[in-house]
């Protein structure tokens, strides 16, 4: 099974190094960017499965990056990390989750895994969309039954 690809975006080099070590040891292929513009350039060359971004960065901040990403990749999970309590309590538009800087590692990993699982589920169901809603529901029920039956 391929390793999930995570793009970590933060203007602080120490935080980027931390993310690279942390997520790398948990099985992720990690790409790093110092701001939103760099992140978009990296995404053009290296496909990623999810983005973890800081809120406040020069040139292009986290909310601007999230908006740009969602325009071209609407199902791409975007997680924002911020030291600002209001940002964490009410995630900006286009962001799937917001976490406080310094959040426990397990919480960050759990959030990423949950969003990736949701994205994978949406992709697997979307391949049946041309069959029509009724037929897709039947196919989905059969697939679900097979998983439960095992």
Would you give an account of this structure?
The chain is of the alpha/beta class and 150 residues long. The chain has helices spanning 13-25, 36-45, 62-72, 85-89, 105-126, 133-149; strands spanning 5-9, 29-33, 50-54, 78-82, 97-100. A 5-stranded parallel β-sheet has the order 2-1-3-4-5, sandwiched between helices. The longest helix has 22 residues, at 105-126. 27% of the residues are buried. The model has no long low-confidence stretch (mean pLDDT 86).
Question: How much of the residues is beta strand, in percent?
Answer: 15-25%
Question: Between the first and last Cα atoms, what is the distance in angstroms?
Answer: 21 Å
Structural class by sheet pairing and helices: alpha/beta
Gyration radius from CA atoms, angstroms: 17 Å
Could you spell the SSE succession in H and E letters? EHEHEHEHEHH
Helix content: 40-55%
Average pLDDT level:
86
The number of helical segments is 6
Point out poorly predicted stretches: none
Q: For the largest sheet, list the strands in their spatial order.
A: 2-1-3-4-5
| Beta strands, count | 5
Q: Quick one: biggest sheet?
A: 5 strands, parallel
Shape designation: globular
């Amino acid at each position: 099974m391929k390793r999930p690809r995570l793009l970590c975006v933060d203007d602080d080099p120490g935080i980027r190094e931390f993310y690279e070590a942390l997520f790398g040891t948990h099985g992720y292929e990690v790409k790093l960017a110092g701001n939103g513009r760099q992140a978009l350039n990296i995404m053009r060359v290296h496909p990623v499965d999810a983005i973890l971004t800081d809120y406040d960065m020069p040139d292009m901040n986290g909310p601007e990056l999230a908006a740009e990403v969602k325009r071209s990749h609407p199902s791409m999970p975007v997680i924002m990390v911020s030291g600002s309590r209001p940002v964490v309590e009410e995630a900006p538009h286009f962001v799937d989750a917001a976490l406080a800087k310094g959040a426990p590692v397990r919480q960050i990993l759990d959030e990423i895994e949950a969003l990736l699982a949701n994205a994978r589920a949406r992709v697997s169901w979307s391949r049946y969309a041309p069959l029509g809603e009724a037929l897709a529901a039947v196919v989905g029920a059969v697939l679900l039954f097979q998983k439960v039956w095992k």
